[in-house]
Amino acid sequence: MDDELIDSASLSLPRKSQLPGTGFFYPDSLDEDRTEERVAEAVDGAEAVVIADTDADGLGCVALLREMYDATLEWATFESDVAARVERWERDVPVDAEDEDGEEDEPPRSTVALVGAGPYSLDEALENVAEYAPDGIDLYVCDLCPDEYAWIEDELAAASDLAASVAWYDHHQWDDETMAAVREAGVDLVVGESDEECSTDVTLRSLDYDFDEQWVELAAVTRDHDLWQKEDPRSDDLADYAYWVSPEEYVTVVGTFGVDLPEIVEQYIELRRVEKQELIEAAVSRAEMKQVGPWTVGVTYGRCSQNEVAEALREQGSDAAVIVKPAGSASIRGSEGFELAHEVAGKVNGGGHPRAAGCKPDIYDDMLDYAHHWTTQGATTKRVILRAFERVADEVAAESEEDTADDGSDADESDADRSEADEGE
Question: What global pTM score does this model have?
Answer without folding.
Answer: 0.82
